[in-house]
Structure formats: C-alpha cells, structure tokens
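Hi R.,

Here's the input for the 2KA complex you asked about:
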Amino acid sequence: MEQFYTIQGEGFNTGRAAYFIRLGGCDVGCHWCDVKESWDAEAHPRQSIDELVAAVLEHPGRNVVITGGEPLMHDLTALTAALQAAGCQTWLETSGAHPLSGSWDWVCVSPKKFKAPLPAVLAAVHELKVVVFNESDFAWAEAHAAQVPAHTRLYLQPEWSRAARVTPAIIDYVKQNPRWQVSLQTHKYLDIP
Ligand SMILES: C[S@@+](CC[C@H](N)C(=O)[O-])C[C@H]1O[C@@H](n2cnc3c(N)ncnc32)[C@H](O)[C@@H]1O
Ligand SMILES: Nc1nc2[nH]cc(C(=O)O)c2c(=O)[nH]1
Ligand code: SF4
Ligand SMILES: [Mg+2]
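And here is the predicted structure with 2KA in place:
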C-alpha cells in the first residue's frame, strides 16, 4: 500500500529508524483502525520484492517493519528472506489472526477481539502490544499475556481517539501491574508518518 522511512513510533523499538512496508489487505475489522484505507488489497498497486529491497537500501537504516493491513494475509517467506540477505533486520507488526510466515528478528503481536490471534503466532512473539479502547481491554490483555513466552515484553497502548480518557487508566494499571509498560503512538505526537 505504501512505504516510508521514519522512526518506529510504538512499543519496544520506539525511537529507532526503520523503513516501513505497509501491505494491503485486512479482514480483522477493528472499528477504531487508524489505517482503514489498507483493508482492500486490490486498491493498491503491486511491487516486486526486488523493487522493495532496492527502495529500503536507498536509506541508511537497516531495520524494516512489515505492517499493513494484516501482513500475515500474505506469504512473507520470500520478502523476509530477501531483506535478511540484504543485511536488514525484519520486524513484524501483526494481529496474529493468520498463520505465521517469514523469518523474523522481531515479532510484535497486537491481539484483536474482532479476530483473535492464533496460538502458533503467540508462541513466536517477542512483544505483545494491546490497544486499550476501554477498561475491558485489561482483562483481554492479561488473557493473552498468559499465552506468550515468559520473556515477552508487554505493552498497553491507548486507542488514539480515546487517549485522553484511557491513558490515565493505563498509567494506574501499569503502576499496579509493573510487568506491563506504556506504549504511546509517539509518531502521532511527533507529526511524522
Ligand atoms: C495498523 S496495525 C497493522 C498491523 C496489524 N494489522 C495489527 O493490527 O497489528 C499497526 C498497529 O497499530 C495499532 N493501532 C491501529 N489503530 C490504532 C488506534 N486507533 N490507536 C492505537 N493503536 C492503533 C494496531 O493495534 C497495531 O499494533
Ligand atoms: N512511525 C510509525 N510507527 C509505527 N509503528 C507501527 C506502525 C504501524 O502502523 O504498523 C507505525 C506507523 O504507522 N508509524
Ligand atoms: S488488524 Fe490491524 S490493520 Fe486490521 S483493522 Fe485491526 S488495526 Fe487495522
Ligand atoms: Mg500506524
């Protein structure tokens, strides 16, 4: 759908330069999704893997975020192999609702009530990042924290339109449950992509 070189705004790798490849297509249907224009895969032009890798290599950064849309609706084996062969780190942003493909240096799963993550994806996760829309999402977060490997980093991220309301609740929750951390969409405050 689009590609851009920016700063990873969210989660564990916040603040690090990264090239984003946003793949079209998503069937999860989060009503608060901040990139609904990604949902229809056919609405966006196709590019070859060679073109994508060449575009990445035009920039000095070697971290590549594959996001979407829901990137796991595509077989990511060839794309991630080509990126790693070119010396890049591959970072995945996924809901986990489709089978895992590809070779990953970092996997971030953001589980969704609208289409829950698959156990096999949760088993491969480095970072669990739960969007908090209302108080019921804390229980949803804990239910998924119980399904990920012990070393997984745990994040609670305010849903953007509700940030003023839910951020204080996230702060209180993290103070009481300190294995969780706050994740903010810092790129939106920085006004960068
Ligand atoms: C647009 S999604 C694309 C990747 C994948 N479909 C997913 O949901 O993880 C990228 C990240 O943005 C988060 N996100 C989407 N809309 C958001 C919103 N309105 N507020 C906060 N985070 C949001 C998602 O939960 C996910 O962690
Ligand atoms: N800067 C920036 N960081 C991000 N981290 C995850 C994003 C995404 O949409 O997947 C995102 C994004 O859209 N922009
Ligand atoms: S899974 Fe990700 S891309 Fe799909 S609707 Fe939800 S937030 Fe948007
Ligand atoms: Mg985004």
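One thing worth noting: Residues 26, 32-35, 67-68, 70, 93-95, 110, 129, 131, 157, 159-160, 185 surround S-adenosylmethionine (ligand 1) (CB under 6 Å).

Cheers,
M.
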